[in-house]
Design brief:
CATH superfamily of the domain at 4-70 and 100-173 and 266-345: FAD/NAD(P)-binding domain
Largest sheet: 7 strands, mixed
Strand order of the largest sheet: 6-5-14-15-16-13-17
CATH class of the domain at 4-70 and 100-173 and 266-345: Alpha Beta
Shape: globular
Distance between the termini: 18 Å
Structural class: alpha/beta
Helix content: 25-40%
Radius of gyration: 21 Å
CATH topology of the domain at 4-70 and 100-173 and 266-345: FAD/NAD(P)-binding domain
CATH architecture of the domain at 4-70 and 100-173 and 266-345: 3-Layer(bba) Sandwich
């Protein structure tokens, strides 16, 4: 079996894949087109499956130390009433670890630090991937040619590699939602670790961090491409009557800290996650809506599964077949569930439908809610050694 890989994309999934390959003895180069890894981004929740994957990659302890467990909170309505309460202790007892919140920049830094610096080729874009040269795959980056036994395409929702491999696939589509998010500039007086609030056609949520700051996000049901001259002012206008601490979170945020992205997804599932010696991973393979908080966790599962297959199968081809067989059904199932959660959550706008959903959620026993979460969180990673 070969032992040289090129990972296209230096995000969470790409770095995790590189760590996994490095841990099984492969020589890895991560090609990232951004000229500077400036740790942009807001916050992220990591569920038990993502944390277990990080454990197998050898960075779980560091991530847990930098994270804040989500033990209390839940889902509310704009006047502050509770639909469901989070029982983080019960979830921790069931799966062995709580959901944790961490700034994306911190997670990204911890992943980078787990790799030798020479693995990272920053400010270089993979222009062409061809099955020729002295190795099975050649990646051309500007004037540099990298020969490899394997290419891992972790180049995101708009993956150029995926488009070249599956030219007839429709690619990502707009989910109907756009999200604005930021991390507060200073600590905020919060009484919960995590909250979601559902209004008609809108959602507001927060994740508390170790240092007292918080990540917040606002999801709006709007036409694709909608932008605001002053995003923070627009959010204050839309959410000023919603319960505390929503106004306080917005007031603790710098206007230039607000990020705004449309939520795109691969609504049409891919027929395969592999083609020849190329494997798709993370959003490039299964971009999903964020309603279950599983996008990064599924990418981390991909990374560990791929490395384990390469460590145990006799050939790269056999390993990629196993990777596709193991990952495609699960990740695509999670993507469907996330899409459905969005339709039953913030995207609901009909008053009667909202009232029925709210009543059903209030009547759902906590043990039933925990069981529903376990469908996605209770994943055991393959061993890397």
């Amino acid at each position: 079996m070969g032992s040289t890989a090129v990972v296209v994309g230096g995000g969470i999934g790409g770095l995790a894949a590189a760590i996994g390959l490095h841990r099984i003895g492969w020589e890895v180069t991560v090609v990232e087109r951004a000229p500077v890894l400036n740790d942009a981004g807001a916050g992220i929740s990591l569920a038990a499956n993502g944390l277990r994957a990080l454990d197998e990659l050898g960075v779980g302890t560091a991530v847990r130390t930098a994270s804040r467990g989500q033990y209390n909170g839940g889902t509310r309505i704009p006047d502050g009433g509770w639909l469901t309460r989070m029982d983080g202790a019960a979830l921790e007892e069931a799966v062995g670890t709580p959901i944790t919140g961490i700034p994306r920049s911190t997670l990204h830094r911890l992943l980078r630090e787990a790799l030798p610096a020479e693995c990272l080729l920053i400010g270089s874009e993979a222009h062409e991937i061809r099955p020729d040269g002295p190795a099975p795959v050649r990646v051309t980056c500007g004037g540099t040619a990298l020969d490899a036994d394997l290419v891992v395409a972790a180049d995101g929702t708009g993956s150029r590699v995926r488009s070249s491999l599956f030219p007839t696939h429709p690619g990502p589509v707009y989910s109907g939602s756009t999200v604005l998010r930021a991390i507060t500039e200073q600590a905020v007086d919060l009484h919960t670790d995590f909250e979601l609030t559902w209004g008609r056609g809108a959602e507001f949520g927060h994740i508390a961090f170790n240092d007292g700051r918080a990540e917040w996000h606002a999801v709006l049901t709007l036409p694709a491409g909608t932008r605001f001259a002053d995003p923070l002012a627009e959010l204050r206008r839309r959410f000023h009557t919603w319960h505390d601490p929503i106004p306080a979170l917005l007031d603790a945020t710098r206007p230039d800290a607000v990020l705004h992205h449309d939520v795109n997804e691969l609504r049409t599932p891919l027929p395969a996650f592999v083609a020849g010696r190329i494997a798709l991973l993370g959003d490039a393979a299964h971009a999903m809506t964020p309603n279950l908080g599983q996008g990064a966790c599924q990418a981390l599962e991909d990374a560990v599964t791929l490395a384990a297959a390469l460590a145990t199968e006799p050939t790269v081809e056999a390993a990629l077949t196993r990777y596709d067989t193991d990952r495609r059904p699960r990740s695509q199932s999670v993507a469907r569930a996330a899409r459905q959660a969005g339709r039953m959550g913030h995207q609901l706008s009909n008053p009667l439908a909202v009232a029925l959903r709210n009543t059903a959620m209030r009547l759902t026993p906590s043990r039933t809610a925990v069981h529903m979460i376990l469908r996605h969180h209770a994943w055991t990673p393959p061993r890397l050694g």
